Amino acid sequence: MTTEATTEPITSTLEVPGAMLTYDVRRSESSTEPILVLIGSPMGASGYPTLASHFTDRTVVTYDPRGSDRSKRTDGALTNTTEEHADDVHRVIAAVTREPVDLFASSGGAINALCLVAQHPEQVRVLVAHEPPDAAVLPDREAAFAAVRHMSEIYQQRGFGAAMATFIALTSLKGEIPVDFADRPAPDPAMFGLPTEDDGKRDDALFAKNPAATRFEPDFEALRRASTRIVMAAGEESEDLFTWRCTFAIAERLGTVPVIFPGGHGGFQGNEFGRPGQPDAFAAKLREVLSAAR
Predict the structure, then answer these.
(1) 140, burial (CB in 10 Å: exposed 0-12, middle 13-18, buried 19+)
(2) What's the CA gap between 157 and 228, in Å, rounded?
(3) Among 26, 34, 248, 286, which residue carries the largest CB count within 10 Å?
């Protein structure tokens, strides 16, 4: 971790087609390194204060994806596409700098970042794509699609708690997704400390707004010829889980080997959502990966 004082974020908004985006810049005036952009999806900037605090020697940019937290859709649509998210990140980067950035992207953000790099490789020097949940790249993709569809149906029928319990069950599975996943008894939300009552809402960012993420087909030809150095990253605690398998499948198509990071899917987080990862070790590994690209 650096010894510089933590830089307070400066918040700005950016109007883009169909949405008003909110992004934050933690500026380091003395930095000679590329700007570091940290993105997730549907998780927004609220998931990144701890990781950002390890890079106060760099200018750090975070943002809320459209439909999440402070970034609102303005066109009345509920669902987002991967291409929309990628264009949003492209526009946020362009609003901040004309130079290539380093981009750390986790979960759905990693899927959006792969789409961005295929279209605008000149904007990104290094992409560290951490555990993208992209079922489309798996050999058992049809079973995975069915499981995700089942989770969405649970959400529509029974609400957030039941859907999140199903999500936890799905993402905790090691190895290929069983074809009978949807026929198995649904887990009790109370087992995970989740609400058992349906609050009636059907606008959750994970279950309702980003259905396209797990079905995204990366443009591997464009990614292989991109000037961007693409580093696929998986958490050591995620071995053989859904996002680990997606990471390795994408890396194989790119002809690379994933880099293993400390922790699991949220290994970079402090106590942002009450389940701390290993942020000190994670940040050190990220700094090592970014430095190796010099």
Answers:
(1) middle
(2) 43
(3) 286
Q: Which amino acid is at 200?
A: G
Band (pLDDT 50/70/90 cuts) for residue 3 is very low
Q: Which residues contact 124 (CB under 8 A, 6 or more apart)?
A: 93, 100, 101, 102, 103, 113, 116, 117, 228
Q: Any idea what the Cα angle at residue 191 is, between residues 190 and 195, rounded to 5°?
A: 25
Q: How many beta carbons lie within 10 A of that of residue 255, not counting itself? A: 8
Cis bond upstream, residue 9 (ω within 30)? no
Q: What is the pLDDT of residue 29?
A: 86
Q: Tokens for 193, please give them.
A: 């400390």
pTM across the whole model:
0.95
The confidence score (pLDDT) of residue 293 equals: 79
